Amino acid sequence: MEEANASSSGPVRGECLCMGAGPQATAILKTISLGPATEHFRNSRIEFLKGLRSLIDSRIEKLQRVEPQKGTSVPVD
Fold first, then answer.
1. Domain that holds residue 58
2. Domain count, the chain
3. What is the chain's pLDDT, residue by residue, as a tens digit (77 residues)?
4. Cβ distance 16 to 23 under 8 Å?
């Protein structure tokens, strides 16, 4: 029963392949002033999101196109 509770509480530090380095790297980068690089990374995120929006818009357009009706109408007696 204790093993089930331990595994359901979430990952333990060290289980991940990064060995907990991800959150530590994020904390370090938040304290460092990157100057002009900060603006570049911000603009990069914006362009990435605009690219996703473009992909979504094209998919919506494709789904909204009215497909020509296939086949012919045949009168039934």
1. 35-64
2. 1
3. 444 444 555 555 557 777 788 888 888 877 877 788 888 989 999 999 999 999 999 999 999 987 777 778 888 87
4. no
